[in-house]
Amino acid sequence: MALETVSENKAFGGVQGVYSHASEETGTDMTFSVFVPDRASGAKLPVLWYLSGLTCTHANVTEKGEFRAACAEHSVIFVAPDTSPRGDDVPDAADEYDFGKGAGFYVDATREPWRKHYRMRSYIERELPEVIAANFPVDMERQGITGHSMGGHGALTVGLRNPERFRSISAFSPIVAPSQVPWGKKALGRYLGEDRTAWREYDACALIEDGARHDHILVDQGTADNFLDDQLQTHRFAEACENAGIDAEIRMQEGYDHSYYFISTFMAEHVAWHAARLKA
Amino acid sequence: MALETVSENKAFGGVQGVYSHASEETGTDMTFSVFVPDRASGAKLPVLWYLSGLTCTHANVTEKGEFRAACAEHSVIFVAPDTSPRGDDVPDAADEYDFGKGAGFYVDATREPWRKHYRMRSYIERELPEVIAANFPVDMERQGITGHSMGGHGALTVGLRNPERFRSISAFSPIVAPSQVPWGKKALGRYLGEDRTAWREYDACALIEDGARHDHILVDQGTADNFLDDQLQTHRFAEACENAGIDAEIRMQEGYDHSYYFISTFMAEHVAWHAARLKA
Fold this sequence. Notes:
Chain A is an alpha/beta fold. Chain A has helices spanning 58-64, 68-74, 120-135, 150-161, 182-192, 204-209, 228-232, 234-244, 260-278; strands spanning 4-11, 14-22, 29-36, 45-51, 77-81, 138-147, 166-172, 217-222, 249-253. Chain A has a 9-stranded mixed β-sheet with strand order 1-2-3-5-4-6-7-8-9, with helices on both faces.
């Protein structure tokens, strides 16, 4: 689990780093970013995971997410993984922004030719946490998870499958029911095959229908988001939570779109919301 | 002065726009960004200009500058111009990042082949302010100016030449004495010719030596900036101010480098500093 330091820059009193390592799960080098606030010597800090959306790498939120001021204020470590395996050996759908590289959908693929490298579920749930725990001053008893769009889907599903590990789950404009929308049907069908029972553990609404529960969920969704009606369908998540008696906070944000201008606007609130729960 | 809207996104309650227009000064289309916070109907707000550094366009600070939260809090409009003329008709030094496109140095060039298009001083001092005044809810009696590196040079020189217009001047890692350093000698020599008397109005230290004064100057400079010793030489500005009796606030920031990780860390302080002076 040797880490290579790609870059480290002082920011908001802490260190914004970018690192790479050879991943066993994906069989590729993987790059991720970590922000470590200034802290007392020896202190271990809570950690907030951020899963990114289609076409993104770790870099988008690292450059445009505006999380560092809030993470420094609340003493929270922020980890941003990549969204898929990378490299010339990794099969891709070159003309499709919503499948293949940049579109791992946080699943362990079971179909050829994807199953060898597209193991983002195990990478995010098992391997990368071990790397983070071994190399950064994190308190792994205090983890929260968030993400955007495809990464909002990732945050909700990873969090709902592991409620004992993630004390708090939030999402910006998440794909809440991938089994029901074009992006998700395409990705899950090709990564997992057409047996839809295998999709349910990768669908936040289906997970809740099947019994998953969490007491601390926050979702922000812009009303001017071009993907709201066809791909995101936030109302499905609201309905699933209501039917299950889950008290999720789902906020429709008037006039906001799908971009980092939206994410950055509410990022500080999400960091503070997680921090309150991680320090409780 | 027709404006074309390239994009508008809601952010922090306001609107982050990107616009283009046909510039008379540069003879090209020019792109710039403007953030307008939420405001009372009819209200005109103070404006903070941000001039960018080498290789940048309006986009770098717009995406990575983290100014919107502070501008929304303090009700300040933020304008970010490009750093040079653009387009296939504009002469360039294609292999040189520090000259030609992306490196206008905020001068009106007098030498061929640069003089026709490289008129960034007049563009920033005259033409773009007219465009901004005609199209946005700005109070042009309350203007401040800031910038980074080459744009810090721009902010200091534009501000020192026009102290009646800019109530406050700040800079991040500015080139303070271009006449004395490689970046500046190369650019001023080629844009203006080798008669160095013509360089003095484009050199913050020389302007102060020649009598320019301002009561509100703030400079932040990282001590881990790779360009500090050779290109920035902050101490020259400190000396020029001291010799002239100018009470500038020059802060050496321990461990910070030349990147937007540095700029974004101190951006909110700069916005607040300008706002206090623009609203005084």
